[in-house]
């Protein structure tokens, strides 16, 4: 193995992506954004016009969907069947659709296999909703990163408005809360904190503070 498997789970807007990227740089680990994989499938579903509850078509679509991460200059692009969809998967519409698509068994099964293959050699940090509970239940280090709904909504709002999306703060908080409820209440691989995960509430903490805390925990295990 090339190193440890580190799992970071938590609700949307808790700062997982930012923190995971920085932590991966510090440790020299590969960052795997599993949310981006579900988002790419959702984009593919929308383009194909497949119904969210049509599991047969979803399974077929997943089989012909190729998702690859391309890393250049620390920047990680998401390729869907050879097309760079990194920006297209980050709209509020795709966020909402992703949460519905990710509840479907065929979608979870297909990505589960891919995520395990990507992570099995170690030296990786995977971020998502079910990494420590389902994808790598034996991961050496697990974190559950959360923050208050207001704080998470506010962070998402700043991200979206910086990109020129026309959204309000109230809308963004409501969308974040709805997505978390769906992710927590679904039948397959619901969002929850693994029993052996280190829980971190990032409300009121700076990125550097969270990062230092996590890096310390990983170094203890290395
Ligand atoms: O992390 P991100 O907000 O990009 O994830 C988008 C959606 O993908 C989540 O709301 C969730 O429904 C789904 N997801 C998941 N399991 C993961 C990662 C993401 O179900 N491991």
From TrEMBL:
GO biological process annotation, one example: pyrimidine nucleotide metabolic process
Subcellular location: Cytoplasm
GO molecular function: ATP binding; CMP kinase activity; dCMP kinase activity
Keyword annotations: ATP-binding, Cytoplasm, Kinase, Nucleotide-binding, Transferase
Pfam families documented for this protein: Cytidylate_kin (PF02224)
Top-level taxon of origin: Bacteria
EC number(s) reported in the record: 2.7.4.25
Leading EC class: transferase
Residues that hold ATP according to the record: 10-18
Principal subcellular localization: cytoplasm
Gene3D superfamilies documented for this protein: P-loop containing nucleotide triphosphate hydrolases
Recorded catalytic activity of this chain's protein: CMP + ATP = CDP + ADP; dCMP + ATP = dCDP + ADP
Transmembrane segments: none
Domain Cytidylate kinase: 6-214
GO cellular component: cytosol
Family stated for the protein in its record: Belongs to the cytidylate kinase family. Type 1 subfamily.
Full protein name: Cytidylate kinase
Species lineage: Bacteria, Pseudomonadati, Thermodesulfobacteriota, Desulfuromonadia, Geobacterales
């Amino acid at each position: 193995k090339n190193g440890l498997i580190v799992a970071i789970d938590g609700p949307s807007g808790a700062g997982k992506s930012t923190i995971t990227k920085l932590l991966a740089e510090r440790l020299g680990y590969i960052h795997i954004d599993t949310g981006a994989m579900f988002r790419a499938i959702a984009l593919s579903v929308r383009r194909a016009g497949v119904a969210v509850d049509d599991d047969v078509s979803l399974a077929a679509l997943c089989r012909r969907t190729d998702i690859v991460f391309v890393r250049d200059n620390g920047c990680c692009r998401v390729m869907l069947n050879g097309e760079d969809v990194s920006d297209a998967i980050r709209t509020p519409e795709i966020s909402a659709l992703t949460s519905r698509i990710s509840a479907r068994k065929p979608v979870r099964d297909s990505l589960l296999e891919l995520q395990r293959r990507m992570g099995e050699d170690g030296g990786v940090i995977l971020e998502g909703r079910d990494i420590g509970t389902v994808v790598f239940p034996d991961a050496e280090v697990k974190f559950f990163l959360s923050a208050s709904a207001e704080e998470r909504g506010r962070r998402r709002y700043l991200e979206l408005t910086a990109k020129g999306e026309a959204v309000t703060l109230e809308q963004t908080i409501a969308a974040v809360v709805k997505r978390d409820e769906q992710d927590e209440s679904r039948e397959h691989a619901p969002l929850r904190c693994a029993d052996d995960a280190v829980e971190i509430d990032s409300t009121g903490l700076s990125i550097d503070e969270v990062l230092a805390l996590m890096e310390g925990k990983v170094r203890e295990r290395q």
